[in-house]
Amino acid sequence: MPSLAAIATIDFPSKIDQDEVKKYARQLFEPSFPAVGRLISIFDNTEIKTRNFCRPLDYYATLKDFKENNYEYVRTSLEYSVIAIEHCLADARLKGEDITDIIFVSTTGLATPSLDALIINKMRLNQYANRIPVFGLGCGGGVSGYARANLIAKANPAAVVLLVCVELCSLTFLRNDFSKSNFVASSLFADGVVACIVKGDGHEPPAKKNISFVASQSKLYYDSLEVMGWEFMDEGFKVLFSEDIPTIIRDNIYRDVVHFLSKHEVMIGDIKNFIFHPGGKKILTAYAETLPVEGDFLANTRQVMNENGNMSSATVLYVMDKFFKDGFEDGPGLMVSLGPGFSSEMVLLNMSNS
Fold this sequence. Notes:
This protein is of the alpha/beta class. The protein contains eleven helices and 13 strands. Helix 5 links the parallel strand 4 (101-106) and strand 5. The active site is at residue 139.
């Protein structure tokens, strides 16, 4: 089966303490949003300590139009994607011409030609690589992209698939949007860039820390289009998300996980490594209350969120990176993320230290 050869994440040099973001948000919202005093505790309730922002906090103080923010999105995405990919290639002992396929996942900016084309051109990667740019999956994009990378490698044992997820959520912040959704988003979302390489089993398997793909599942929930997404405004991307997301998780996630695992003769109790997209504190609580798993099975997920914030699609791969670098238990692993649609994405893994 296909396996993970390397993974690299970006910690931006302008990482910011949550307390600083809280003070800034209060100053910004207070004149036009009377509820700010009552809602400001949201920042503390997230339990986030630092936010992975691609720019210093004062960058967000001035009003910018969509053109300015999107230009910064393209520039920053390219710069840090290259850094992450270079680390991946070095760790996997590969060269740019070895890449057979590239998947680029993002929902926080626009580019045509797509960013994968810009990356190939900048790095002089294999110009015959198959390109798959993916837009619109939001927080679900990390697991979905990882599934697609492995399915490509499963179909072609000689494949070397590069997956890049870039989400610069802070650049979508609308300074003059004084809605509750924008205020809540300002307490939670952050920026992330991650690259990973998946190799088909025609290549020599890893000598240790073998994370191999077993299967994947996607599900779209009917009549839930309004739960999460963007409203595209003249000024840019306006965030939309519902307070009902934890309820949706409680109503569906157990049944969906059991349905997925049972097709592969695996039970929840067999899972040793839970690689979940955090979403937020209430979502983590909903997972913990709904899934019958002993112990703090979301410790890595929670730590990634607390140290970075919600980086949309990239976050779950930061969690994967933590497992990959800090260690995991031998046995099955389960990746889960939720995104616009409303939808869920799952991947079943086999994880071995030898």
